[in-house]
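Worked Example 4.2. Consider the chain below.
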Amino acid sequence: MSAQLYEPSPRIVLAVDARTEDFTIAPTTRVAAPGQALSWTSDDGPFVLHFNHRTPVGSVVLHSKWTGSAHAAEAQVDDNARPGVYEYAIAIAKEDRVFIHVSGEVRVERPRRG
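Applying the procedure from the previous section yields the following structure tokens:
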């Protein structure tokens, strides 16, 4: 897989249904290469993202900021991030409640030379 096959700025969409407490993380697993930018967005409210055991982006915790149209957090995969799966938990504030979900993933792969 070459670096060109990766999206230039992979976006991960976060949502929660306050009635059912069901989360949507789309995609659930985002594949990224070292040096690549990542972006999480939510229309439902501000959120905090916490990498569980290790982080590919240099920070264990990311806080969203209001962009004028959605809440978003951005980070860049470290150039020296080791290939592997990095799990994260999310907390989204919506309707005076906080909803927590623990199964998002970023999978770091080094582009294959072809």
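The chain has no helices and ten strands. Residues 3-108 form a domain with the Immunoglobulin-like fold (CATH 2.60.40.420). Compare this with Example 4.1 before moving on.
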